[in-house]
């Protein structure tokens, strides 16, 4: 069949079969887009053309589309742009992309065939379909139904709204004429108003939960006022939840809470052991004192008895016998005192051991806290550790009126390196750069992996000119010392931006200036260092 020969009277089933046949003959990949284009060529449908009724519906959908999450906002912007351009193919692509992002599997080819392969003569009981609604109209309506049924219905708060979304999905599938379309638009607009009110309620609920969490953190800080570590973690947690919430922020807050709970468990365990040991030591001491008191009381009574006996006896042998008995009783008391002393020393040793165990647990906890701030691949600070170091160094620079510089480094063509040689080689390249940095910077300089192939360096007591010289030495070191992979020498380079801290400047502003300089270094050809404005 010649593709230029178009017959608009063909049955949709015949067109679908002919489309599949032509795809095979022309050896065209049977993708949904290729299928649609060839189908329209055979059927005589002009591309990117829909009915006025459908266009009205799609315009309303773009206006009322939810925007309360970044994904929804991006989709809404794409839909509005497509409407402004009257590019319905682009509109369809935005909906398909949104459905794919939300893990909804949509078989476009099946939808196209189902939309077109309808009986040419409807049943007597069916409503006659307007001739304008065909081609892409059927697909877009089905996509809208899919979105309402499988995405909106699963994300709304409350079963009532979810059921209404599913009802709208059923309604859009049954649209056959203009009155049906107008009725759906009215119901859809009402649903969007309810959805917006529901989102506002969700935001109020979120704010209420955050207020409760802040109250809980304040009370916990008061109860554990002597533990500075927990107070610092609670302060970090409060700062975290005060920012606009997203998945990453919630995960970070969860990590802070886990660390606090872990610390509380260790404190509870340590205090429990110390309490038991102290109770045992005090009980043993009281018991020994009671026994010693009884023994010394009995000894005193016996001494008085022997004293009276000696006064009554004149025979030297009897006196010697009494003295021997006195010595025997004295030795017995002395042994008891020695035993009591041993018990007391043992109890004290046990108490010291418990204290040492507490100190060991606190040391281990401190080490675990430091590990949380360490990048597992390179062994240097991670972003979180760098943020803490920045606060310390910025305060010191402001207090002492000394210079502080911030350098941002980014490995050149890192994605190409990963794609060509694999992620393992990319990881080794990161470690290679870290080695070069450590060989060049001072002990007091702060080095961290800021994210991906990006590294941040703080240079205390260093002016901008000196900082650029330091980073340039690192760059020269990298060009002299080649990176080896399978005995092949690979040249790893980086670009850098350096900014000097201004007193009172926020970390975000300092980062933006250094990042701007880094961007210019990349744009100017890479493998160079540029100072920030």
Task: Offer a few descriptive terms.
elongated; five-stranded mixed β-sheet; 7 strands; alpha+beta; coiled coil; disordered N terminus; Alpha-Beta Plaits; 3 domains
Condensed summary:
The chain is of the alpha+beta class and 533 residues long. It has helices at residues 12-25, 32-43, 52-64, 70-85, 88-101, 108-116, 136-155, 159-173, 178-223, 228-241, 247-312, 316-372, 383-400, 414-421, 423-440, 464-480, 507-523; strands at 404-411, 446-451, 454-460, 483-485, 488-490, 494-500, 529-531. It is elongated and about 145 Å long.
Descriptive notes:
The protein has helices spanning 12-25, 32-43, 52-64, 70-85, 88-101, 108-116, 136-155, 159-173, 178-223, 228-241, 247-312, 316-372, 383-400, 414-421, 423-440, 464-480, 507-523, and strands at 404-411, 446-451, 454-460, 483-485, 488-490, 494-500, 529-531. The chain is of the alpha+beta class and 533 residues long. The chain folds into 3 domains: 48-118 and 130-201, no CATH class; 227-372, Four Helix Bundle (Hemerythrin (Met), subunit A) (Up-down Bundle); 383-531, Reverse transcriptase/Diguanylate cyclase domain (Alpha-Beta Plaits), CATH 3.30.70.270. The chain has a 5-stranded mixed sheet, with helices on both faces. It has a two-stranded antiparallel ribbon with strand order 4-5. Helix 17 (507-523) links the parallel strand 6 and strand 7 (529-531). Helix 11 (247-312) runs antiparallel to helix 12. It is elongated and about 145 Å long.
């Amino acid at each position: 069949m010649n593709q230029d020969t178009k017959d608009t009277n063909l049955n949709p089933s015949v067109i679908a079969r002919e489309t599949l046949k032509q795809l095979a003959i022309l050896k065209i990949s049977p993708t949904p887009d290729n299928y649609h284009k060839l189908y329209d060529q055979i059927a005589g449908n002009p591309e990117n053309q829909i009915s006025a009724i459908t266009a009205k519906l799609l315009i309303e959908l773009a206006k009322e589309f939810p925007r309360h999450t970044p994904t929804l906002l991006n989709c809404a912007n794409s839909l509005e742009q497509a409407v402004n351009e009257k590019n319905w193919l682009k509109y369809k692509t935005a909906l398909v992309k949104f459905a794919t992002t939300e893990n909804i599997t949509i078989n476009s080819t099946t939808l196209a065939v189902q939309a077109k392969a309808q009986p040419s003569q409807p049943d007597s009981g069916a409503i006659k379909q307007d001739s304008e609604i065909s081609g892409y109209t059927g697909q877009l309506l089905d996509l809208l139904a899919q979105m309402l049924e499988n995405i909106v219905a699963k994300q709304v708060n409350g079963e009532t709204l979810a059921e209404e979304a599913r009802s709208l999905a059923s309604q859009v599938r049954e649209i056959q004429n203009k009155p049906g379309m107008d009725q759906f638009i009215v119901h859809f607009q009402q649903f969007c108003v309810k959805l917006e009110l529901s989102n506002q309620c969700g935001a109020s609920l979120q704010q209420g939960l955050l207020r409760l969490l802040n109250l809980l953190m304040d009370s916990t800080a008061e109860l554990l006022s002597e533990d500075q570590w927990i107070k610092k973690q609670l302060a970090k947690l409060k700062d975290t939840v005060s920012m606009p919430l997203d998945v990453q922020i919630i995960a970070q807050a969860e990590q802070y809470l886990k660390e606090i709970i872990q610390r509380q468990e260790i404190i509870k365990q340590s205090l429990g052991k110390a309490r038991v040991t102290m109770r045992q030591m005090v009980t043993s001491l009281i018991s020994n004192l009671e026994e010693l008191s009884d023994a010394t009381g009995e000894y005193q009574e016996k001494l008085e008895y022997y004293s009276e006996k000696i006064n009554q006896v004149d025979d030297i042998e009897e006196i010697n016998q009494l003295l021997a008995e006195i010595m025997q009783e004295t030795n017995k008391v002395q042994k008891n005192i020695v035993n009591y002393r041993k018990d007391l020393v043992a109890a004290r040793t046990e108490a010291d051991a418990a204290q040492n165990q507490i100190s060991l647990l606190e040391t281990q906890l401190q080490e675990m806290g430091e590990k949380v701030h360490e990048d597992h691949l390179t062994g240097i600070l991670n972003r979180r550790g760098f943020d803490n170091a920045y606060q310390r160094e910025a305060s010191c620079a402001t207090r002492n009126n000394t210079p502080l510089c911030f350098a941002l480094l980014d490995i050149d063509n890192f994605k190409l390196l990963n794609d060509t040689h694999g992620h393992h080689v990319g990881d080794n390249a990161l470690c290679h750069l870290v080695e070069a940095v450590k060989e060049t910077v001072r002990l007091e300089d702060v080095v961290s992996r800021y994210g991906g192939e990006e590294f941040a360096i703080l240079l205390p007591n260093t002016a901008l000119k000196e900082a650029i010289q330091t980073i340039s030495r690192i760059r020269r070191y990298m060009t002299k010392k080649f990176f080896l992979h399978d005995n092949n020498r690979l040249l790893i380079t980086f670009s850098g931006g350096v900014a000097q801290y201004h007193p009172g400047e926020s970390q975000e502003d300092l980062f933006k200036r250094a990042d701007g300089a880094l961007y210019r270094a990349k744009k100017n050809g890479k493998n160079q260092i540029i100072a920030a404005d």
